[in-house]
Amino acid sequence: MAPGDLDDVFASRRLGPGRHGDRAASVGEVEAPAPLSYVFASPVATERLTLRLMTADDVNDVAAYQGREDVCRYLLHGPRSREELVPKIAEWGAATRMTRDHDYLQLAIQLADRVIGHMFLRIASAESLQGEIGWTLHPDFFGNGYASEAARATLRLAFDDIGLRRVRAELDPRNDASIALCVRLGMRHEASFRQDMWLKGEWADTGVYALLVQEWRAGARDRRARDRS
Which among 21, 135, 152, 172 has most CB atoms closer than 10 A? Predict the structure, then answer.
């Protein structure tokens, strides 16, 4: 895993201990999960957005939000300069494999011809098919449903394409916008950790939200039923 990748998201704050190793072919009558073998190869299109790998051409758009104090308030890093972002974007653009613990995708959220944020997805445990999701959006684009649209597309990728069975988000409990997004996505509040992280000169808390694949699919069926009614 490239250094510094986990400090770029609103929702990703704790590194859970990933476990992986040899899997048995079956346990009793239950078939063991197949190894992950996903490689991101094509952009993901939604109604209004495109999720794609970042390129060097995106540096100005990314610097426009990652260089802001308000955007970085709940992130693990402070504002970044254009020069700092050049090598990071190169690393993010080369991260395509999702097969082992700590493999990740950091995908540009493109609206028309502009990058307005990014989605983050990593494998927390390949053995138990668990992932972690995060997001960052330029404040000028708040209130239009773009974060929800991009996050739902990323969850579809996680569950339907990659084959994960559980995805969590870990965030600062003061981040009301990210908590509201977790709720809209159907994620369940599972845990709160008090003062578990020294961050930017103070002890910070962590909240954990999560969603199982069967919950995601049930929610998708409900949304389709509402759309037909």
Answer: 135
